Amino acid sequence: MLFEGTWFAITRINLIQMLATVVLVLVFWLGTRRMSIVPGRFQSVVEFGLDFVRVNIAHDILGRKVGDRFLPILTTLFFMILFMNLPGIIPFLNIPGTAVIAVPLLLALVSYVTFIYAGLRKSPKNFFKNSLFPAGVPWPIYIIVTPIELISTFIIRPVTLTLRLLMNMMVGHLLLVLFFAATHFFLFTAGGWWSLLAAGSLAFGFVFTLFEILVAVLQAYVFALLTAVYIQLAVAEEH
Predict the structure, then answer these.
(1) How many domains would you assign to the chain?
(2) pLDDT given for residue 231 in this prediction
(3) Distances (CA, A) of 6 to 18, 102, 163
(4) What phi-psi label fits residue 31: left (phi over 0), alpha (psi between -120 and 50 degrees) or beta?
(5) Is 230 left (phi over 0), alpha (psi -120 to 50) or beta?
(6) CA angle, 80 as apex, 226 and 207 as ends, to 5°?
(7) 46 inside domain
(8) Where are the alpha helices (DSSP H) in the chain?
(9) The pTM is what?
Protein backbone atom coordinates (compact mmCIF):
# COMPACT_ATOMS: atom_id res chain seq x y z
CA MET A 1 0.00 0.00 0.00
CA LEU A 2 2.96 2.32 0.61
CA PHE A 3 6.58 2.43 -0.65
CA GLU A 4 6.02 -0.46 -3.04
CA GLY A 5 9.20 -1.93 -4.47
CA THR A 6 11.39 -0.71 -1.62
CA TRP A 7 12.74 -2.33 1.53
CA PHE A 8 10.19 -0.29 3.47
CA ALA A 9 7.11 -1.51 1.59
CA ILE A 10 4.02 -1.51 3.84
CA THR A 11 1.22 -3.97 3.20
CA ARG A 12 -2.36 -3.88 4.44
CA ILE A 13 -1.45 -6.33 7.21
CA ASN A 14 1.44 -4.08 8.30
CA LEU A 15 -0.98 -1.17 8.65
CA ILE A 16 -3.36 -3.36 10.67
CA GLN A 17 -0.47 -4.38 12.94
CA MET A 18 0.45 -0.73 13.48
CA LEU A 19 -3.19 0.18 14.15
CA ALA A 20 -3.56 -2.68 16.65
CA THR A 21 -0.41 -1.55 18.46
CA VAL A 22 -1.61 2.06 18.66
CA VAL A 23 -5.04 0.99 19.94
CA LEU A 24 -3.45 -1.34 22.53
CA VAL A 25 -1.17 1.39 23.88
CA LEU A 26 -4.04 3.89 23.85
CA VAL A 27 -6.38 1.55 25.75
CA PHE A 28 -3.87 0.93 28.52
CA TRP A 29 -2.85 4.57 28.69
CA LEU A 30 -6.43 5.77 29.01
CA GLY A 31 -7.26 2.99 31.46
CA THR A 32 -4.37 3.68 33.82
CA ARG A 33 -3.60 7.40 33.57
CA ARG A 34 -5.98 8.36 36.38
CA MET A 35 -6.10 5.38 38.69
CA SER A 36 -8.56 5.59 41.58
CA ILE A 37 -9.41 3.34 44.51
CA VAL A 38 -12.99 3.15 43.27
CA PRO A 39 -12.43 2.45 39.57
CA GLY A 40 -14.61 3.75 36.79
CA ARG A 41 -15.97 1.51 34.06
CA PHE A 42 -12.99 1.80 31.74
CA GLN A 43 -10.44 1.31 34.51
CA SER A 44 -12.45 -1.72 35.70
CA VAL A 45 -12.27 -3.31 32.26
CA VAL A 46 -8.49 -2.80 32.07
CA GLU A 47 -8.01 -4.11 35.61
CA PHE A 48 -10.19 -7.14 34.82
CA GLY A 49 -7.97 -7.98 31.83
CA LEU A 50 -4.78 -7.61 33.86
CA ASP A 51 -6.21 -9.65 36.75
CA PHE A 52 -7.27 -12.37 34.32
CA VAL A 53 -3.69 -12.87 33.12
CA ARG A 54 -2.21 -12.57 36.61
CA VAL A 55 -4.60 -14.97 38.34
CA ASN A 56 -5.58 -17.47 35.64
CA ILE A 57 -2.22 -17.78 33.88
CA ALA A 58 0.71 -16.50 35.93
CA HIS A 59 -0.33 -17.46 39.48
CA ASP A 60 -2.24 -20.63 38.59
CA ILE A 61 0.66 -22.11 36.63
CA LEU A 62 3.76 -20.58 38.20
CA GLY A 63 2.65 -19.65 41.70
CA ARG A 64 2.63 -16.16 43.14
CA LYS A 65 6.39 -15.58 43.47
CA VAL A 66 7.55 -16.90 40.08
CA GLY A 67 4.33 -15.75 38.42
CA ASP A 68 4.92 -12.14 39.42
CA ARG A 69 8.47 -12.31 38.01
CA PHE A 70 7.23 -13.35 34.58
CA LEU A 71 3.90 -11.50 34.67
CA PRO A 72 5.06 -8.61 32.42
CA ILE A 73 6.08 -10.91 29.55
CA LEU A 74 2.93 -13.05 29.89
CA THR A 75 0.70 -9.97 29.96
CA THR A 76 2.44 -8.50 26.92
CA LEU A 77 2.09 -11.75 24.96
CA PHE A 78 -1.60 -12.13 25.82
CA PHE A 79 -2.71 -8.61 24.96
CA MET A 80 -0.49 -8.24 21.91
CA ILE A 81 -1.91 -11.44 20.39
CA LEU A 82 -5.46 -10.49 21.36
CA PHE A 83 -5.31 -7.03 19.79
CA MET A 84 -3.55 -8.42 16.69
CA ASN A 85 -6.24 -11.11 16.31
CA LEU A 86 -9.34 -8.95 16.70
CA PRO A 87 -9.00 -6.98 13.41
CA GLY A 88 -9.89 -10.23 11.66
CA ILE A 89 -13.57 -9.67 12.51
CA ILE A 90 -13.65 -5.87 12.18
CA PRO A 91 -15.32 -4.64 8.94
CA PHE A 92 -12.96 -3.08 6.36
CA LEU A 93 -9.96 -4.60 8.13
CA ASN A 94 -11.02 -8.24 7.96
CA ILE A 95 -7.64 -9.84 8.53
CA PRO A 96 -5.70 -10.40 11.76
CA GLY A 97 -2.21 -9.05 12.22
CA THR A 98 -1.11 -12.58 13.16
CA ALA A 99 -2.11 -14.03 9.77
CA VAL A 100 1.46 -13.79 8.45
CA ILE A 101 4.16 -16.00 9.91
CA ALA A 102 6.48 -13.17 11.02
CA VAL A 103 4.41 -12.19 14.08
CA PRO A 104 3.67 -15.71 15.43
CA LEU A 105 7.30 -16.68 14.81
CA LEU A 106 8.61 -13.63 16.65
CA LEU A 107 6.29 -14.27 19.61
CA ALA A 108 7.29 -17.95 19.67
CA LEU A 109 10.95 -16.96 19.78
CA VAL A 110 10.23 -14.59 22.68
CA SER A 111 8.48 -17.43 24.50
CA TYR A 112 11.34 -19.82 23.70
CA VAL A 113 14.06 -17.42 24.91
CA THR A 114 12.06 -16.75 28.10
CA PHE A 115 11.78 -20.49 28.74
CA ILE A 116 15.55 -21.00 28.25
CA TYR A 117 16.33 -17.95 30.41
CA ALA A 118 14.09 -19.22 33.22
CA GLY A 119 15.76 -22.62 33.18
CA LEU A 120 19.30 -21.24 33.15
CA ARG A 121 18.45 -18.72 35.87
CA LYS A 122 17.07 -21.50 38.07
CA SER A 123 19.83 -24.05 37.41
CA PRO A 124 22.73 -22.74 35.29
CA LYS A 125 24.72 -25.96 35.41
CA ASN A 126 22.02 -28.62 35.23
CA PHE A 127 19.21 -27.17 33.09
CA PHE A 128 20.25 -28.69 29.75
CA LYS A 129 21.53 -31.86 31.42
CA ASN A 130 18.27 -32.51 33.25
CA SER A 131 16.23 -31.62 30.16
CA LEU A 132 18.10 -34.01 27.87
CA PHE A 133 18.99 -36.71 30.40
CA PRO A 134 15.97 -37.19 32.71
CA ALA A 135 16.78 -38.71 36.09
CA GLY A 136 15.94 -42.35 36.76
CA VAL A 137 16.33 -43.55 33.17
CA PRO A 138 18.76 -46.48 32.59
CA TRP A 139 21.78 -45.13 30.71
CA PRO A 140 21.35 -47.28 27.54
CA ILE A 141 17.85 -45.83 27.11
CA TYR A 142 19.34 -42.33 26.81
CA ILE A 143 20.26 -43.26 23.24
CA ILE A 144 16.53 -43.09 22.48
CA VAL A 145 15.30 -40.64 25.13
CA THR A 146 17.84 -37.84 24.61
CA PRO A 147 17.13 -37.23 20.88
CA ILE A 148 13.39 -37.30 21.62
CA GLU A 149 13.80 -34.79 24.46
CA LEU A 150 16.00 -32.58 22.27
CA ILE A 151 13.44 -32.48 19.47
CA SER A 152 10.32 -32.18 21.65
CA THR A 153 11.71 -29.64 24.13
CA PHE A 154 14.01 -27.42 22.08
CA ILE A 155 12.69 -27.72 18.50
CA ILE A 156 9.01 -28.71 18.48
CA ARG A 157 7.86 -26.16 21.08
CA PRO A 158 8.59 -22.95 19.13
CA VAL A 159 7.39 -24.59 15.90
CA THR A 160 4.04 -25.64 17.39
CA LEU A 161 3.54 -22.24 19.05
CA THR A 162 4.10 -20.55 15.70
CA LEU A 163 1.94 -22.85 13.58
CA ARG A 164 -0.94 -23.09 16.07
CA LEU A 165 -1.44 -19.33 16.16
CA LEU A 166 -0.77 -18.77 12.45
CA MET A 167 -3.00 -21.55 11.13
CA ASN A 168 -5.94 -20.82 13.43
CA MET A 169 -6.05 -17.19 12.39
CA MET A 170 -5.46 -17.90 8.69
CA VAL A 171 -8.16 -20.57 8.55
CA GLY A 172 -10.64 -18.31 10.31
CA HIS A 173 -9.90 -15.51 7.86
CA LEU A 174 -10.31 -17.83 4.86
CA LEU A 175 -13.64 -19.17 6.16
CA LEU A 176 -15.03 -15.66 6.53
CA VAL A 177 -13.79 -14.78 3.03
CA LEU A 178 -15.48 -17.91 1.67
CA PHE A 179 -18.87 -17.22 3.24
CA PHE A 180 -19.04 -13.51 2.41
CA ALA A 181 -17.67 -14.04 -1.11
CA ALA A 182 -20.38 -16.66 -1.61
CA THR A 183 -22.99 -14.18 -0.38
CA HIS A 184 -21.76 -11.59 -2.88
CA PHE A 185 -21.78 -14.18 -5.69
CA PHE A 186 -25.29 -15.48 -5.01
CA LEU A 187 -26.72 -12.00 -4.57
CA PHE A 188 -25.05 -9.95 -7.32
CA THR A 189 -23.68 -12.42 -9.86
CA ALA A 190 -25.85 -15.53 -9.96
CA GLY A 191 -29.14 -13.74 -9.40
CA GLY A 192 -32.56 -15.37 -9.70
CA TRP A 193 -33.37 -18.15 -7.26
CA TRP A 194 -29.69 -18.32 -6.32
CA SER A 195 -30.20 -15.12 -4.37
CA LEU A 196 -32.04 -17.13 -1.72
CA LEU A 197 -28.79 -18.95 -0.91
CA ALA A 198 -27.20 -15.59 -0.07
CA ALA A 199 -29.21 -15.51 3.15
CA GLY A 200 -27.75 -18.86 4.21
CA SER A 201 -24.14 -17.97 3.43
CA LEU A 202 -24.58 -14.58 5.13
CA ALA A 203 -25.97 -16.29 8.25
CA PHE A 204 -23.04 -18.73 8.31
CA GLY A 205 -20.67 -15.80 7.89
CA PHE A 206 -22.24 -14.01 10.85
CA VAL A 207 -22.07 -17.14 13.05
CA PHE A 208 -18.42 -17.72 12.15
CA THR A 209 -17.67 -14.07 12.87
CA LEU A 210 -18.91 -14.59 16.42
CA PHE A 211 -16.90 -17.81 16.60
CA GLU A 212 -13.78 -15.96 15.46
CA ILE A 213 -14.12 -13.60 18.43
CA LEU A 214 -13.88 -16.66 20.67
CA VAL A 215 -10.92 -17.98 18.67
CA ALA A 216 -9.10 -14.62 18.90
CA VAL A 217 -9.38 -14.62 22.69
CA LEU A 218 -8.68 -18.34 23.02
CA GLN A 219 -5.51 -18.23 20.93
CA ALA A 220 -4.12 -15.37 23.04
CA TYR A 221 -4.95 -17.33 26.19
CA VAL A 222 -3.45 -20.61 24.91
CA PHE A 223 -0.22 -18.93 23.76
CA ALA A 224 0.33 -17.17 27.11
CA LEU A 225 -0.72 -20.30 29.02
CA LEU A 226 1.72 -22.57 27.16
CA THR A 227 4.49 -20.03 27.71
CA ALA A 228 3.75 -20.16 31.44
CA VAL A 229 3.72 -23.97 31.35
CA TYR A 230 7.12 -24.06 29.61
CA ILE A 231 8.53 -21.66 32.19
CA GLN A 232 7.11 -23.80 34.98
CA LEU A 233 8.79 -26.89 33.51
CA ALA A 234 12.07 -24.99 33.26
CA VAL A 235 12.03 -23.88 36.91
CA ALA A 236 10.77 -27.19 38.33
CA GLU A 237 12.84 -28.61 41.19
CA GLU A 238 14.38 -31.39 39.11
CA HIS A 239 16.04 -28.68 37.00
Answers:
(1) 1
(2) 94
(3) 19, 18, 28
(4) alpha
(5) alpha
(6) 85
(7) yes
(8) 12-32, 41-53, 60-85, 102-122, 127-132, 142-151, 157-184, 195-234
(9) 0.89
